[in-house]
Amino acid sequence: MAVMHRDPTLPEVDRPETAQFWRGCRERQLSLPRCRSCGRYHWYPLPTCPYCQGTDLEWAPVSGRATLFAWTEVRYPFVRELADRLPLLVALVTPEEAPEIRLVTNLVGCAEPDLRVGMPVAVVFEDINETVTMPMFQPQGIV
């Protein structure tokens, strides 16, 4: 029997703690864990709220609007499977609804010289295969 190897560039979309996130992405909806007790979002998904230790958590849709916090342009193929996608813009973005959160993502539809800290970005979804849809962010208002 042949052993199937997982693509190291793709997320494990069936992990219990993040499966709801990836299902939302397939449906073109960005969602984050939110505590029903204190109303705050958090990231990475945890069994209790990191702010109030509440356990009444939900996956809540967010607008997909965010602010660019930081980025880097990756030019060296540290992962062989990504070599054909270089250069790659990897960024931290802050969701509009949760300014304390930093999501790691890719930036698309732009070039590195056009980027500015604090610029508005919005989520776009890319179907990678039949099970993985990746949320990426694209700057808004670049002319």
Summarize the structure.
The protein has one helix spanning 19-26, and strands spanning 31-35, 57-61, 65-74, 88-95, 103-107, 120-127, 133-139. By secondary structure, it is mostly beta strands.
Characteristic key phrases:
143 residues, mainly beta, 6% helix, 34% strand
List the helices and strands and how they pair.
Elements: H1 19-26, E1 31-35, E2 57-61, E3 65-74, E4 88-95, E5 103-107, E6 120-127, E7 133-139
Task: Report what the structure shows.
By secondary structure, the protein is mainly β. The chain has one domain (19-139). It has one helix at residues 19-26; strands spanning 31-35, 57-61, 65-74, 88-95, 103-107, 120-127, 133-139. The strands form 2 sheets. It has a 5-stranded antiparallel sheet. The termini are far apart.
Q: So how many helices?
A: 1
Tell me, briefly, the overall form.
globular
Helix content bin: under 10%
- Overall mean pLDDT stands at 92
Strand content: 25-35%
Secondary-structure element string:
HEEEEEEE
